[in-house]
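Folded chain entry —
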Amino acid sequence: MKLKRRHLLAIAGLSGLGGFLKILGNQNASVSNAHPAPSLSPTASTPLLRFIAVADTGTGTKNQYAVAKAMQRYHQQNPFNLAILAGDNIYTNGEIEKIREVFEKPYQYLLQQGVKFQACLGNHDIRTANGDLEVSYPGFNMAGRYYTFRRETVQVFALDTNHNADWTAQMAWLEQELSRSDAPWKVVFGHHQIYASGMYGLNQAFVDRFTPLFKKYRVQLWINGHEHHYERSRPIDGTTYLVCGGGGAEIRKVGHSEWTAYAASRFSFAAIEVYADQMIISGIGTDNQVFDRGVIQLRS
């Protein structure tokens, strides 16, 4: 497959020189099956923020370690210091005594490099002490069952999407925090899916609950796990829905829905690069290859 010079430059700008050479050397294996690299703005050579997202990780199995190794390799080529951990952090029942096996060892390299993990609770996490021990675990950096933080031009909102969450208080808090945020980019994450094409599929209750707020306050990206696959939606009223549940738990089949831009049943994580005017999402597998790439444009 021949790539024109402008396409090579776009890929190089996206991944850095090391990532560019890696993709170029393996273009027949990966790029031909991925979406074309989006064109970056001429001035956008270095992202304002780079972070990764992954979920359904805490198994301690070889599959989790394989994803962690891919995250490590990506970090070596494209440094980042933030990782979103979207729930089911400790299988099977949120037992905090497993924390070294399922978190500290697989991500030892990233932790040593100063990567800060920001977690939320999944349905498996609340099976022991309702997840309270995970909320208080320093490595998960949770300022409560729901909380917000800001990095550069991005405001991130972490939610408790479990059935026993304090929904009245949480939703009032979410709207208040969204309304007061002046961040150009808004990212919300929680464990359970909203738009997905896997075992659980469309979550109509969450569509009704969340999407009016996302539209009103211009949330550009939602991140979740629970579904054990990778899926990126087309923008829906300005919001892209990203499933990144391939972090270590058993992979499940995924279909294709009217909202699906790309879906894959594979162990993987998502890498997000934020620029002034666009956000670029890359799906990366345990073979270190970018198998999906999508772009979100900042709306004025």
In short: The two ends are 37 Å apart (CA to CA). Residues 72 and 110 are 6 Å apart (CA to CA). Residues 5-25 form the longest helix (21 residues). Residues 46-297 form a domain with the Purple Acid Phosphatase; chain A, domain 2 fold (CATH 3.60.21.10).
